[in-house]
Amino acid sequence: MAIPASRIDLNLFRVMDAVHEHGGISGAARHLHLSQPAVSHALARLRQLWDDPLFVRQGNSMVATELTRRVIGEVQAHLRGLQSLVGQADSFDPATLDMTLRLGMRDVLEAITLPPLMARLADVAPRVRLASVRVPRDELERVLTQGEVDLVIDRERRLGKRIRGAHLADERLAVLMRKGHPLTRRRMDLAAYFKCQHVMVTLQPDQPDPLQALWAMNGQGERDVILRCQHYFAAANVAVHSDVLVTLPRTYAMALTRALPLSVRDLPLSVPPLGIWMYWHADRDDDPVHRWMRERVQGEALQAIQGRVR
Question: In terms of CATH architecture, what is 5-87?
Answer without folding.
Answer: Orthogonal Bundle (1.10)
